[in-house]
Please model this.
Amino acid sequence: MFSSDSALSRAQSTVQLDNDQFRVTEWRFARNTETGWHVHSLDYVVVPMTTGELILNTRDDSYPFKLTAGAAYTRAPGLEHNIANHGGTEIVFLEVERK
Model:
């Protein structure tokens, strides 16, 4: 099982757009970085810009998941989680939250 490691650095997040309808954030995960524990309050879409594998940590479990550049997916709000990159390459995605 993978878990969050307090020795990990924070992934870089850059808000690219924030208006009445949407917030678009670019996330960059260098090796051994993580988001930190958080909960989304809005529906959101993730658009991977690179292909690679990240680790999804929840309070109950942890598992790897593969991202494919250009293959968007959506998530509902409410699940507390932490995303981490333990791999050797940088992973980048856009997170689009609908307000």
